[in-house]
# Entry
Amino acid sequence: MIEAPENDTTSGDEHQHADKYSDPRARITRRGVWLLVGVGLFALIATPLSVYLRRTRLERTTEFFGDQVILALQIGERIEMLPLAAKGADGKTVEQVELTRTPGLGHLRRALLDERHYDWATAINEDAADLCGGEQAYCVQLRITDPTEHRFPETVIDLELAGGWVGISGAGRRVRVTDRVRPALRHFLQTMINVKQQRYDLRE
# Structure
């Protein structure tokens, strides 16, 4: 029987995989160290920057609409869409639509909250509802309430979707959303109207 030398303290596993511990290809170079440092610094800078860019900006919207409206859009428990004009853009009657817990409602909230979604040069001291008398107008209201907690009074937002105008009902001022946001806002609300109409048509 052959015995290992008494002074050989290396385990059998280390003997079998000795190449792992002495592989000349595994080298930590100065370039590699700087690369790791660069990746770490990029992560430290990019993470807060990404959070900042994705954060909803509320300064201008709060100044224009007021704290109550901002709070309602942020935490309002119930949101309903109501007719503001007799007919929609397709000539169909606009009916009341329950938007609470609707998929995509978070995007609607953010579209109306973020100051970057408005063309502030268009702000004017007139109600959005003043535009709803023409044949081309497409107007609805968003009624936001908080029936459980009562954290704010009922809030009503007037929307003239053909031109992209937004204003608080009776507040005497309105502003236009950007060209990028206007079709998305109109599409979402029109989709909700169509879904309700389809459900109504398919009722038993």
Notes: The first strand starts at residue 78 and ends at 83.
